[in-house]
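Case study.
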Amino acid sequence: MEEQDKILHEVTSGEYKFGFVTNIETETIPKGLHEDVVRLISAKKEEPEWLLEFRLKAFRHWQTMTMPTWSHLDISEIDYQDIIYYAAPKQKKSLNSIDDVDPELKETFDKLGIPLDEQKVLAGVSGYAVDAVMDSVSVKTTFRDTLAEKGIIFCSFSEAVKDYPELVKQYMGSVVPYADNFFAALNSAVFGDGSFCYIPKGVRCPMELSTYFRINALNTGQFERTLIVADEGSYVSYLEGCTAPMRDENQLHAAIVEIIVMKDAEVKYSTVQNWYPGDKNGKGGVYNFVTKRGICKGDRAKLSWTQVETGSAITWKYPSTILKGDDSYGEFYSVALTNNHQQADTGTKMIHIGRNTKSRIVSKGISARFSNNSYRGLVKVLKGAVNARNFSQCDSLLLGDECGAHTFPYLEVENQTAAVEHEATTSKIGEDQLFYCNQRGLSTEDAVGLIVNGYAREVINKLPMEFAVEAQKLLQISLEGGVG
Amino acid sequence: MNLESSYVDLYMANMDLLREGVSDIINKHRSDAIESFNLLGIPTKKVEKYKYTNLAERFAEDFEKYFTPKHEAVDLPSLFTCDVPDFDTYKVYILNGFYYGDKKLLEENGVVFGSLAEASFKYLELFEKYYNTLADNQTEGVTALNTAFAQDGVFIYAPKSATLNKPIQIINFLLSEEDTFVQTRNLFVFEENSNVRVIICDHTLSAKRFLTNAVTEVYVAPEANIELVRMQNEHNLSTHVTSDYVQQNEKSVFISNTITLHGGMVRNNINVVLNGEYCENHTYGLFLSDKIQHVDNYANIDHAVPNCVSNELFKGVLDDKSTGAFNGGIMVRRDAQKTQAYQASNNLLLTGEARVYAKPQLEIYADDVKCSHGATVGQLDAEALFYMQSRGIGKRKAQLLQLYGFAYDVVQKVGIEALRESVAELVRKRLRGELARCENCSINCG
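After joint prediction, the assembly is written out as follows.
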């Protein structure tokens, strides 16, 4: 038993590998949040009047709101006046080729394993296009031209505002209105950059699209927006990754992701979230309070969320799907691993509106050491959602006797033809399972790894290849020493 | 004037009446309780625990409130015939919240049962030790309200190793010419190794609106074996809130079964704390709702110590425009290792307008546990219907068969054998629509 505890301890005492700081000149604005800051951000980004109006409306609304307290999280008070709302790495104005990117920045992303150099990627086996965002600006979007040939728009949010204002105007805020919640309102007021993606009718995106978020500057918050529109019959697989330096204070990340899926289209959105989780004693780390929501607008639309959450001091998000079109389908696959003093309150919402809509939720929580991990989900079947079907499975694995695992599902059914099922289990790694592995010559350490890996496999398998590998590595790092 | 202060004023105005007829042990809790109530208020839907049931709305309605028992010239035992035939029990009658009968305290095999008010004088020590120790006046507004206004109800005391030869049947009657607000307070103390079954039946005898706010404290000593069955059968104009607070100690067994046959708005709060190792708790519930009824069951099982087992099962059949809710909670505290806790909620929707909300929650802080929960919402199985119909069973009969089967999962958990079959029959009658809403009432108030 003691040996097992020792191994579990080793397994759960991994170190964060992305905690370095890039020494780059950064343009920041003073700390604090008031209307002038909102105007300043808008001016810095040379935004049109309508966007400024949107920001100001959101800001004024935000001022009337208070931070919600219903979550199962212990959040130290956030001083919204003590945050820098805009930080941009200084670089040359226009980027025409990779050589124009600041070498320091390039190196940063190289170090993170994010290729900004298309040539290098092409030399590899498979490529994926990246929009790299550091602090409040997009550094570089790769493969834009290749994608443009197919009519796909993939660029930073700021560029989209300039180049495709009609599209942005039409869809921005249509899934997550600025008044949706406290953090959505904050984001709508001060968002920096983000990614915009539009897949035209009938186009199957030839490569994985991806956004990489990096917090670098000190005392800043990161507030980015992602807007994805998949027009009729199109397909895209979208990836999101994120890291931040190790710092003693908590940094706030409050993003918005909006996805619109039209008739017969399919969007796969995958996240490997690895913000800095804080040190072993719970000092520092990123507060990851994100609003992610998609709508299956047309018939037979499909939206699939996959998330691997290993980072952040506190993760608080519910990627949701509104199933509006008939026969539309929503999926949510999640692995949330909390270690040390991390906390997570995450899950999903599936809102069934259309007929014959289906949804599936698979959530795997792993808690270690002093962490707390909650699943919170809502399955709502509205009156008109004839033959709606949902299946939810939420399992929790406890590694240690000082952590917590909680499940808060909400089922709201207003249609008799609906079939909604929820099941959940909580347990630790079975001694019989370990014994079985030991008996067959596996060390306890390997056995723990094997079991955790198998436990998360159903979700990991949903990730695109490159990410699946990364996600497995991440689980490995987060549970250092055991997972193989 | 807001709702809270109207109740506080009511309390202030009737303080003397409230204090009459009960001992100071009950009275001394009143002022703290009303203060606490003033802060908490009646829960609205904004309170997470009451997300699906708006009690404030009902409590704001205009009800007559009596602080001296108003026993009209009625003979309850003759007026009422139990729906359960040939059922032999010790009967305790409560009329509009007050004990009814000449002999206030009965004693059988050492077990004392009867009026709470009367007992508060006679069993000072017991009241000192147990009264208002389990009830949560700090977070539950309706409980605090009850504590402030408590005047009577049922008291049961089973001494060490006492076994009762018949179940105790508490029959709550609501009979009034006016819309009436009723608050009952029960205290059950079961000493070591005692063995008692209690049935609580709720009936309305007049077609007036009633609001009942009942609080029951149950102390289960080590190795006691207790069963509590609630049969709720009130008409659709009534609102019934029950709050049970159960504390189980070492190696005790407590089974509760809440069966809601009729009722306008019903909210059952069941709070169990497993306070001693090797306890066993079974909490079951079944509700059959139609018209515009609303039934909300809240059950929270708190595993405070290791090695306990708990099992929750709640089922609901919802017809017409009725709504149902299930709020389940399992809390496994740090160090409550080797806990086994199961929780399930199954619901059947029979019409397009019925709605159901389920919220089965787990909160777990110990690792060596086996906990699971499940919730389903669905409809009658079309294939099973087809199967039966193809074998000559009429559609209606086939549907009923499925419903019986669905409900029987809970009914079969009733431990009192004589009652089990009768409950099954009542449920069958209820599903066929044959069960009287209230016995001897000619007005169809549904």
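Observations recorded in class. Chain B has twelve helices and 21 strands. Residues 3-432 of chain B form one domain. We will return to this complex in the next lecture.
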